[in-house]
Known about the structure:
By secondary structure, the chain is mainly alpha-helical. It has helices at residues 33-37, 59-69, 97-102, 131-153, 158-184, 188-207, 213-225, 228-266, 272-283, and strands at residues 5-8, 20-24, 29-32, 84-85, 94-95, 106-110, 115-119.
Amino acid sequence: MAKMVRATCAFCPPGEAGSIMYIAGEQNIAAHQDCLLFSSGFVESEEHNPDNLDIRFDVASVLKELRRGKRLVCNFCREKGATVGCEERACRRSYHYFCALCDDAAIQTDEDNGVYRVFCPKHDPGNRTNHYDAANKRRRRALKSSTITEQMSTEETAEENNLRILQRKNRHKVRIDFLRKCKQAGLLDDIFEEMLDTLHLAQEKLMDDNTSETEYEETVMSLFDCGLFENILTNIHSGTEEKIQELLESRKRLDNKIELLQDLKEVILPTQENTASTSSTVSE
């Protein structure tokens, strides 16, 4: 597999951050080492050897990450090609690597273990006590709030219930009108591309064996909380019984055919001698 060729900027002083680049002449590609290392969907070559950095990146992997970046808009400069995503699970901010530095994003590097992570300023681990504990507290409050709401709903009057339904309809109308305006402004494609990118990152985390148990659980919870994932699974589950019935009907038809073939197989055909004798009798 073709590899990116390692090079150093001739104008940078030795050891300058960002001076190391990788080049693929035939593909007309040049990329900073840090831009590659911190890209969220990018991995180093399986043949990577710390003693030979010339075979650190595959050209095919770089091209794939470039294609992914064409759909991602940088939170800092608002240009596409932002392949460096915030490591916070729920955050949708993406950057170009050097734009992340300009936006005061937190950079975490562990070269020995191949860890290269970026956190946007809002989710800088140095500015929060314990994000996962906070998330768990929010979920517990949500569950408690849900229980209280159920108890209160039994005491609601018919008038209050009608008012709540009217408010829900108004919220739906506002959302529908908002999406129609997005469509008129030509923003729907960008919205759905953002949704697809978010789902793609969630898929990568679920497929990655190195994803932590906490991150895995929170990714699953976020998919179910959005409603879309659960609706898809519900549709698949509801269609299972119909599929089973179709297969049973198909098996019944096959069983009937097999039975007919077995009956046909047991029929004794007249031998050639009997056939000749019959023909002779007819001639006489």
